[in-house]
Amino acid sequence: MNRLPSELHRLYAVQAPGGPDAASEDLRLIDGFGRVRAMVLSLARPADWQALAKVWQGVQVDLDLPAPAIAVSGTDGFQLWFSLAQPLPAAQAWAFLEALRLRYLDDIKPQRVGLMPGLDGALPPQWQHAGAVPALQAASGVWSAFVAPELAPVFADEPWLETAPNPEGQSNLLSRLTSIASADFELALQGLSPAPPSTFGAPVVGASSAAPARVLDAVVRSRDQHQAVAGLWLDPKSFLLAVMNNDAVELRLRIEAAKALLPHVDPTGPVPGVSPP
Fold this sequence. Notes:
The protein is α+β, with helices and mostly antiparallel strands and about 280 residues long. The protein folds into two domains: about 5-185, Alpha-Beta Plaits; about 195-265, no CATH class. The chain has nine helices and eight strands. Strands 4-1-3-2-8-7 form a six-stranded antiparallel β-sheet. The protein has a two-stranded antiparallel ribbon with strand order 5-6. Strand 2 (about 70) and strand 3 form a beta hairpin. About 40% of the residues are buried.
């Protein structure tokens, strides 16, 4: 019996574990409310396991979190797949990954780091997620796959498998992993993100509906940050999207911008590699 779909659903699907879709080949990573249980951080162009290993080790040693799964993308990089015990808004998942990037990969060009879920540049913006693993890459004929930590360095030059990975081996790798409890996630995010000054109100996690005003006010009042995101915005959503995706803007403001965008995101938009509900 193929255990792989069950393990993938246990760790990453937004459906309840053991639900009617638990044995399905389809893996739904974003639900109709824009919530996720899977968080994927990737490093590519080139694949550099030595750099990404700092994240894999750091979340366990520094943040006391369960180890994420390690995957080769089937194209040009490595991925870390984090599992959440309970679904969270995609903006919070993105904020966590961005904080990890700043903590452990700050010396890496941002263009090489992928954070999923993430917002695309469409209007209205839509949450996108990573493609399913393992999966055949149609353009090249090779496969993405989960790999053991001790074997990850072997794939630095060719981050893919030439043939389909053994489902039982993939299942065994995933069966050793556990999900991040909600309380542990909150503690880790608070530890990664510096607390904002009191003039900006509540912390980012659970931010109030005044977030758009705070983001706009903070960016405009800071000349350097204003110049960093300067441009022509057709509407407030374009402005917030520009703030969220700009590395020159302070992290807490980027997180607030992501939260402010949530009411304007179409959660039913297409998700690459994920079958529609």
